[in-house]
Amino acid sequence: MVSGKMRPLLENNSVIRVMFEEGKRLAAVYGPENVYDFSLGNPNVPAPDEVKEAILEVLEEEDPVFVHGYMSNAGYEDVRETIADSLNERFGTSFGAGNILMTVGAASGLNVILKTVLEPGDEVVVFAPYFVEYGNYVRNYDGNLVVVPPDTVDFQPNLEEFAKRLTEKTKAVIINTPNNPTGVVYSEETLKRLAGILEEKEKESGKGILLISDEPYRELAYDGVQVPYVTKYYKDTVVCYSYSKSLSLPGERIGYLVIPDELQDSGQVFTSASIANRVLGSVNAPSLMQRVIKRCIKKGACVNLAAYDRNRNRLYEGLKACGFSCIRPEGAFYLFVKSPVEDEKEFCDRAAKHNLLLVPGSSFACPGYVRVAYCVSYEQIERSMPAFLALAKEYGLGGEEGEA
Ligand code: PLP
């Protein structure tokens, strides 16, 4: 019964399931407190109090027929206006409700915009390491993924290699900043250079190339690092945002697309994307959550960043002290660590023997590295340090961690 298009997904799914099952098996044998699962990007910091307050306020103060009803496929006008105002205030943009399309999280937003623009055979360029689902989303619309190899010096996008990969078939480019899995924030200089390359290519080919900025981690930036707003650098940009991480609401499925007026055929793209929202089966973003988001924005709600920051510092300093090599992440909640051996899957297997569950970089098209997700309890990080040290010693890495 299962289609040929689904079969590779089914096989791939079993790899993820194996990891999940392994975590459960280890927890049963050694006790959950002795298993250090750093594999999942599921926020562990609870949603801020304003979310619960807003839910109760909506239920108590707004008309239930309205709150639970259908609305325009793009979402509630007043919610979209509140989001536009908030973006304008923070980033000096000039969006209105007509530029905001409410979606069922970033995953849905990406699917909506890809369905809106892709013809079969169109190429979508991504930068390794990248969120593995991009490939599946692009294939949903019979597009072809083109992967730019990483610049492992600082993990900013490799723009020299990027320029070489643009062709007549390039329809879109997906960037993700702050980045999963590296935690890197793309600099203003990077975005300006990227925009310059795209503008040149658009001029040469006479075809529009859409830049899709996937930003579920926008609010998760540390040390006062600014995350540049991408629409300011390149006019054919669509921003894909989600509240999954900034309000710790991944299961509620709420986000939005920003489709600026400056974008080529902006009005048509907006209407088509609203239709895509409908025909992909989402119809509209969850109504209650839209009402909640409006109130949360007005309350200035954001997840407790200090908790992630504390985890980030402890893990980064701890792993460096063990002798591992990694770049200090500026955003998101991931650390990308260089495997001490070329085959990082072997390294992950050895790590699992110490009850450390890590994700191989090849899952992000970047072998030789592993992703450590620090959206876990501080205590887990603390408890895991002797295991990281023992692992480091197996590879002859020097380290003081755990001995101090
Ligand atoms: N994009 C990236 C880079 C992600 O890491 C994730 C989730 O982890 C998503 C998109 C999907 O986010 P959402 O839960 O909003 O669909």
Query: What is the alpha-carbon Rg in Å?
Result: 22 Å
Helix-strand sequence: HEHHHEHEHEHEHEEEHHHEEHEEEH
**Number of extended strands:** 13
Amino- and carboxy-terminal Cα gap: 59 Å
**Residue runs with pLDDT of under 50 for 5 or more positions:** none
Count of discrete domains? 2
Give me the number of helical elements. Answer: 13
With strands numbered from the N-terminus, the spatial order across the biggest sheet is: 2-8-7-6-5-3-4
- The structure class reads alpha/beta
What's the level 1 CATH class of the largest domain?
Answer: Alpha Beta
Name of the CATH homologous superfamily of the largest domain: Type I PLP-dependent aspartate aminotransferase-like (Major domain)
Mind explaining what this structure looks like?
The structure is a single chain. It is built from 13 helices and 13 strands. The protein has two domains: 6-47 and 304-403, Alpha-Beta Complex (Aspartate Aminotransferase, domain 1); 49-299, Aspartate Aminotransferase, domain 2, CATH 3.40.640. The chain is 43% helix and 13% strand. It has a seven-stranded mixed sheet, with helices on both faces. It has a four-stranded antiparallel sheet with strand order 9-10-13-12, with helices on one face. A two-stranded parallel sheet has the order 1-11. α8 links the parallel β5 and β6. It has helices at residues 7-30, 49-61, 64-67, 77-91, 105-117, 133-140, 159-165, 188-205, 266-279, 287-299, 305-322, 344-353, 378-394; strands at residues 36-37, 100-103, 123-127, 144-148, 170-176, 210-214, 237-242, 255-258, 325-326, 334-338, 356-357, 359-360, 369-373. It is an alpha/beta fold and 404 residues long. The radius of gyration is 22 Å and the shape is globular. The longest helix is centred in the first third of the chain and has 24 residues, at 7-30. α5 packs parallel to α6 and α5 (105-117) crosses α9. The model has no long low-confidence stretch (mean pLDDT 95). The structure holds pyridoxal-5'-phosphate.
